[in-house]
Write a structure and sequence with these properties.
Pfam families: FAD_binding_4 (PF01565). The protein is an alpha+beta fold. It folds into three domains: 91 residues, Uridine Diphospho-n-acetylenolpyruvylglucosamine Reductase, domain 3; 74 residues, Uridine Diphospho-n-acetylenolpyruvylglucosamine Reductase, domain 3, CATH 3.30.465; 173 residues, Vanillyl-alcohol Oxidase, Chain A, domain 3. The protein contains eleven helices and 16 strands. The chain has a five-stranded antiparallel beta sheet with strand order 5-6-9-7-8. A hairpin with a 4-residue loop joins strand 11 and strand 12. Helix 1 packs across helix 4 and helix 6 packs antiparallel against helix 10. The chain is globular, with a radius of gyration of 23 Å.
Amino acid sequence: MVAFASVAAGLVSLCQGARALTGEQIVQQLRTQLSPASEIVLTSDAAYAKDFTPRFSITNQPAYVVAVKASLVKDVQTIIRYASRNSVPFLATGGGHGYSSTLDRLRNGIALDLGLFNSVKVDKAANTMTIGGGVRSDEVATTLQKAGKEILTGNGDIVTASKDRHPDLFYALKGAGFNYGVATSLTYTVYPATNGGRAMNADMIFPGHLNGSVWHLAERIVGQQPKELSITFSVGYDASSGGMVIIANFIYAGPVAAGAKLIKPFLDMRPLNLSIAEIDWKDIPRKAIYGNTLAGCRPGISYVPYAVNLYKIDVPNLISVVNYMHDAMRADPAVQTAIIAWAQYAPYGFRRHTDASSAFPHRDALVFA
């Protein structure tokens, strides 16, 4: 269990008494230890807002005094070891997502920006792709299966974790949280593109009073959903109509004709609006859900997500939830921006791997909301 031991040592060191270093002291001490292409600034400097990757949500923001954009893996190693040695808290930022409601407990810390780790390398012969720790998911438009990670643990050690090397750490990294290290690169297994790299994207809008019919159809698909089909629903309030709406998105890794047959019951409900087309797989992040897939990824928004897994689709209960949302939002405009996001996938990928393959605990969930 070498990997876990090294992680624990690093995390414990961050909990020791702080020396109350000023931002100026941290910059002065760290700058000489970093490679020339790295950048280190005070968060009060104009360069911080200009050059560094912000977290998308302004809710529960950590309070940094220094930001460092590392250029090399050894720079990340230097920063982590410096922070551990001096009891300075730090957080690493890849693409900018950070949902934990406890992040604001970090005060007077270091922002470790992985924005320069943005390479994407594909080895066609080996069917693998290696990406840097700062690459965003919308920049990688391929269905991936995790095969390996290179990370720096809590005490600055460089560790390559895979099913064969440090398998205990690899197991934990896949589903047990984000406190095991800073991932500077990740290697995935890739698969041949289906349908020439094209997919069906279908967006449609239903009025809120049809939500029961939508949930009944979603329930009917359970156990029969093919692995090529993913389903999402966004339930929210439409101020212009004064009622709830459900935006449905269906992505099928195949031609439109085949995908349309699978979602015909939804099409037969005659949605208020329908957009269905075959698009390049790489364009899905920017075109799905009427082009709003990345709406929650804009810096500076107030974003407070909470997750709920559904292990059964209880239609009467879901109808009650939508009705409650309608009444609450109609009465209070301040909450009208809240939505329920529903993701329903085929269980093929989960069932393909055993429980012992990763720490991911939600294999039997039907819906991720």
